[in-house]
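thought: user wants a sequence for this fold. calling inverse folding tool.
action: design(structure=
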């Protein structure tokens, strides 16, 4: 079973810096860019952003899953999941794994699919909390969040609350888009969040977010 500690979140900024300078530590074809008009990468990107959801690659949260969650959701092809072990209370990294009323439980990594970012799954311990309450607390705890809108949908028997909002990034000197959705379960609320290195990566990963949202169900 693969597990990631909250301490592992710190290198994300270093990864971002490497990506911005155009450096590469490998020869994975998924990271190569075809600059020719109508090239393979351009076609792939256009298809990915046009599709409402990505092709299913696996699931997380079910029996035998690397991430133990109150829900099960589908993951996009090539994305890989790792459970997150909370840092010791009082350590320098403890706060990285907590946002508002929820704690980070699982990271679904987009790098194997050629993107820089994660779907992160957070769990709350308040069994009486609604999805809206958990999501509002999560978004408000995201430093610099603004332009927040909430929508409500139904997936199977679950009521899903979604938030779209922006966060200003000092690292990139830009305002980044964020998406998150939440559901209430008998074991407490679950929040699924999509960020991304920048606006381009966020848009490219939206199909994976939509796949997770339309497939979420109780575990």
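)
observation: tool returned 219 residues.
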């Amino acid at each position: 079973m693969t597990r990631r500690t909250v301490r592992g979140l710190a290198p994300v900024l270093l990864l971002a810096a490497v990506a911005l300078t155009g450096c590469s530590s490998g020869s994975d074809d998924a990271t190569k860019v075809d600059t020719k008009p109508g090239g393979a990468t351009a076609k792939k990107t256009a298809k990915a952003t046009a599709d409402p959801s990505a092709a299913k690659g696996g699931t997380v949260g079910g029996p035998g899953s690397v991430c133990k969650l109150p829900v099960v959701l589908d993951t996009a092809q090539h994305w890989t999941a790792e459970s997150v072990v909370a840092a010791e209370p009082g350590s320098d990294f403890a706060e990285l794994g907590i946002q508002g009323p929820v704690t980070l439980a699982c990271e679904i990594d987009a790098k194997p699919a050629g993107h820089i970012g994660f779907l992160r799954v957070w769990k709350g311990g308040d069994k009486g909390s609604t999805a809206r309450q958990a999501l509002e607390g999560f978004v408000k705890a995201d430093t610099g969040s603004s332009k927040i809108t909430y929508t409500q949908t139904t997936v199977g028997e679950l009521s899903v609350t979604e938030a779209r909002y922006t966060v200003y990034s000092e690292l990139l000197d830009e305002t980044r888009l964020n998406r998150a959705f939440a559901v209430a379960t008998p074991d407490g609320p679950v929040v699924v969040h999509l960020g991304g290195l920048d606006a381009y990566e966020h848009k490219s990963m939206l199909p994976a977010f939509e796949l997770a949202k339309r497939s979420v169900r109780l575990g």
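thought: summarizing for user.
answer: Here is the designed sequence. Confidence is low (pLDDT under 50) at residues 7-51.
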